[in-house]
Amino acid sequence: MIANEAISIAYVDTHLLRTFVAVATTGSFSAAAEQLGFTQSAVSQQIAALETDLDTPLLTRRPVALTPAGERLRRHAALLLTRLDMARADVTRAVAPPGRLIVGLTPLAWSRRVSRALATIRAGSARLSSRVLVADRERIVAAATTGEIDVALVDGFTAPSDPLPLPVAGAVGVAEDAAVVAVPGDHPLTARRTVELADLAEAYWIDAPVVSPLTSLPVDGLRAGLRYEGADVAVLLGLVRAGHGLSVLPASTAEGVALPRLVHRVELLLTPGAGEPATRLSELLAAP
């Protein structure tokens, strides 16, 4: 039902909401089923049950698209599910054994400073159980939201002084570096000191979704000549040097042609309810 132009979802099953968000995000019942590990029939049944519960159509079927009511529900559902995940993480922390530190990070968020800070924390407690998880930004942010990790360090490229466009609030900037286009040694760009990203729309790029995804850059239409799905920065640089395509990287990681309107940022997310080792690590990294 719709009252005062809003949908009442106080008693909606959260499993149905997650299925709805998956369909709304992927734009496909089959893609949502694959993402959630359900059959397509099960997804269809769950969406139908949600529409029956709310007494209003949420999606058109052919093609799959949100109705006005569905768009309203999508906005509410995303916030509610995030809050639920954060609450679950907080409760998990309350009953978790002490002395745990799990750091999740994207490949380009790792640095000597992070390594030294982690070493300082571990040296202060011989019994500390510590682990490092390396994955893409979406995976790391989700792990912080659900409490799988204690501290998240994520990186990306953005305009100078702009924060990263993260789906959750509370991130703190801990590092900022110049951005460069990494090119092969014999590339014509090596003769230049700076270049605008928009001027390279016709070049061939390496799409490295875990390390430096093309979709995160503020220019549309960049053409991928090769897709690299690993997380090893050294492998990505080797592919660039071999002439397979260009890549945007931080100046501290690779030599290249400067991008004056772009910087590389690293931001930190502390999981709600994280223990003292995680809090101490975040303090060390956030300090000037």
- CATH-scheme architecture of the largest domain: 3-Layer(aba) Sandwich
Low-confidence runs of at least 5 consecutive residues: 1-8
> What would you report as the Rg, rounded to the nearest angstrom?
22 Å
How would you state the average pLDDT, rounded?
88
Under CATH at level 1, the class of the largest domain stands as: Alpha Beta
The SSE order reads EEHHHEEHEHEHEEEEHEEH
> Strands of the biggest beta sheet: in what spatial order?
6-5-7-12-8-11
Termini Cα gap: 52 Å
Q: How is the main sheet built?
A: 6 strands, mixed
Helicity range: 25-40%
Bin the strand percentage: 15-25%
Q: Would you tell me which CATH topology of the largest domain applies?
A: D-Maltodextrin-Binding Protein, domain 2
Q: How many distinct helices?
A: 8
Number of beta strands: 12
Shape: globular
Derived from helix and strand composition plus strand pairing, the structural class reads: alpha/beta
How many separate domains? 2
